[in-house]
Amino acid sequence: MKITREKSIEAILVIVTGLLILSLIFKWPNVTIAAAVIGVLGVFSNFFAEKITWVWMKIAEVLGYINARILLSVIFFVFLFPLALLTRLIKGNTLKLKRNEAEGDSYFDERNHTYEPKDIENLW
To answer: String of b and e for 53-89 (b: at least 16 CB within 10 Å)?
Structure first.
């Protein structure tokens, strides 16, 4: 990926803003100095701006990997899996994946329905 000057300035602005917010919240004076150094180096040196942006993008890749693998797994096992178990306990065989012994060997579900003109209006 080619790092343009605009992308570098944008990334440095985000980093400096984040560091300044952290220094305001936690009252860390060293973080304010780090924000100033990163801001000055990024604005006045293309070399440092590209290196800072490259590091920032690598951190974003790592966080993306963590987000995709770990956080989504946690969401699945904490929320969706218990909800699926609860639904299965309450409603039973809603997908009809198991054959009904009373109906024999067929998955066919007989539906006695007389179609009317309103059934085919506004299908979607």
So the answer is: beebeeeeeeeeeeeeeeeeeeeeeeeeeeeeeeeee
